[in-house]
Amino acid sequence: MNDRTSPYPFIARGASAELFDIGGGHALKLFRDSVSDEMIAREAEASAHAAACSVPTAAAIGLQTSDGRRGIIYPRLEGMTLMDWVRRNPMRAGWAMNQMGDIHAAMHRASGGNLRSLKQVLATDIAYGPAPDPLQRAAIAYLEALPDGDALTHGDFHLGNVMMTPRGMVVIDWSKAAAGHPAADVVRSEMLMRFGIGPTDWVTNLWRDWAARRLRRSHAAASGVSARDIDAWRSVVALAWLRARDATGRTPAFMRYLDGALRRSEIGSLRPE
C-alpha cells in the first residue's frame, strides 16, 4: 500500500512521494512502494552533489524509514512551486522563465561527478521503449555518435520542480539526475513544459509553448548552448521519453514533434510512408 498514515503533519503529495513536516526545520519525503531503492539513493546523492556545486537546492540530510516506508530527510522549504507562483503572478512569468534559464545554465556549468551517464539512460529508454526495432537501432547508433558531455543534468526541470522561497528559486527532485550534455537536458525541459502533465486547453497550450521557448532562449543566452546543439539531441531525447511518458494530453502534438525531429536527424519515422 502506498499511502499509509504518517505520524507527522502532511505538507504535500506528488506522483512518487509524500512530504511531511518532522520538526526542527526538516521535512521527510516518503516514497511510494513502486519507487526503487536505486532511485531514492540517486536523488539523495544528486541533491547533495548539486548543493556542493552551488546549485540552489535543498541537499538531502539523510535516509529514514517510517512505518515501513523509505524516505529522505531534507531541510524544510517555505514557499510554493514556481508553477503556483506564476499562476499568482502572471505578469512576471517572463522574468520567472529568465531566472529559471539562468539556474539551468549554472547547473550545467557544474560537473555531473559520479552520477550515471545520461547517454546510457537514453539508450536504455530507447531500447525498452515502444518504437520498432529498426528505428531503435538507428536511434541508438545516432546517439552513440553524439558528444558525451559531463554536465550536471536534472532530467525533470520544469515549473513543478522549482520552488519559490524567501531566498529565491530552489531546485528540487533530483531522482532523474545524470551526467551528460546540457542540450539533452534542455530538450527534456522543453518537452516537459510543452507536452508534460497539465492542462491542455488551447489557451494554456499557447502559454506552455511560449514558456518553453522563453526558457530555452534564456538558457541559451546564459550558457552558449546553440540551437544546433539542441536540434541534434531532440530526436533521441524525445524517442527515449516514449518509454515512460505519462501525460495523455497533447499526445498528437508530441508525436508530430517527435516524428519531425526523427526525420530531421535522418533516423527514420514512426509514421508509415
From TrEMBL:
One of its GO terms (molecular function) is transferase activity. Gene3D superfamilies: 3.90.1200.10. Residues 11-219 form the Aminoglycoside phosphotransferase domain. Transmembrane segments: none annotated. Keywords: Transferase. It comes from the Bacteria. This is Aminoglycoside phosphotransferase family protein.
